[in-house]
Amino acid sequence: MSFGVAPQSIIYANPTKPKSHLEYAAEMNVSVMTVDSDFELHKIKAHYPHANLVLRIRCDAKVAQCPLGEKYGCNPDTDGKDLIELAKSLGLNMIGISFHVGSGCMDPSAYAKAIQASRKLFDFAKIIGYNFTLLDIGGGFPGDRDTDIKEIASIVNHNVDLLFPSPDVTIIAEPGRFYVSSAYTLACQVHSKRVVRQNGKFDSVMYYINDGVYGSFNCNLYDHKIVHPTTLKSADEELFKSSIWGPTCDALDQVCENVSLPRLNIDDFIIFEDMGAYTIPIASPFNGFPLPRIEYYVQRKHLEDINATTASHEYILLRGN
Length: 321
Ligand SMILES: Cc1ncc(COP(=O)(O)O)c(C=O)c1O
Prior knowledge:
Layout: E1 11-12, H1 19-27, E2 32-35, H2 38-47, E3 52-57, E4 64-66, H3 80-89, E5 93-99, E6 103-105, H4 109-127, E7 134-136, H5 150-163, E8 170-172, H6 177-180, E9 186-198, E10 201-209, H7 218-222, E11 229-231, E12 239-245, E13 254-262, E14 269-272, E15 295-299, E16 315-320
Parallel strand pairs: 1-2, 2-3, 3-5, 5-7, 7-8, 10-12
Antiparallel strand pairs: 4-6, 9-10, 9-14, 11-14, 12-13, 15-16
Bound molecules: pyridoxal-5'-phosphate (PLP).
Pyridoxal-5'-phosphate is lined by residues 13, 68, 100, 103, 138-141, 174-178, 277.
């Protein structure tokens, strides 16, 4: 709302809400919110009875980078109708269905199944006197550089055209990684190095860098991401078995377990692309390590109107935090 977004344009998409958050949503007039249990319906009845409810159903992709169905979404076949009926009997206003097939969805057919399950619940709701007007297809869309959304888009469009042709139903999505997966390329610096030997023979090199799993690379832990390092060295340099570690004293703080890298020295850079989604926003100040300081650089060629005297390098510093 501090960006000037109207409360009616916001969906409170967490199906489990503390009472104080519900009361705050009521105060701010953010009325559209998801639910997936009878407890939540009773709580909303007590703390925000005029809310506009969206039933979140579970329709998991067979493969997803970060499955969400274990935590949220009612079973559309066994619980969906009961919850719609309960909402009706409590005098609550229910306006539609939402789902999230899993973040980083690798099974586009999940969207078809979820839209079909939604249609059944729209029809049931009509029978008991609701007029659903919102279908929220959640997230799950890819965002890395080498991915595209065409297959998911065509499945979604086909099923929406077929099952939700009426303009009275608003269709929304909640894209997260689609927008920001490739938001930035991260350049980290090697601050320490150690050579591992087995029986006196070279085994590998350990590089310690100034960002780790408690900083930008928490995507390794929480987003099950495998990051790919590159360097600024020439492509024909000899490669060595290497591992990359974050700056904290925690052994869990490993960025890459086993990668081939040219010989790097202290202060050399290691580069990681596609570092936008589920990275820095989830960083924590583990053991007093400050959150990574951010400096935004852009390639000169992308800034045609920049004053040529501001920098003479290919990359230009825009702003630091
Ligand atoms: C309710 C909800 N909507 C949207 C998103 C964004 O998902 P994605 O990054 O897969 O697009 C998430 C991510 O966890 C979520 O929990």
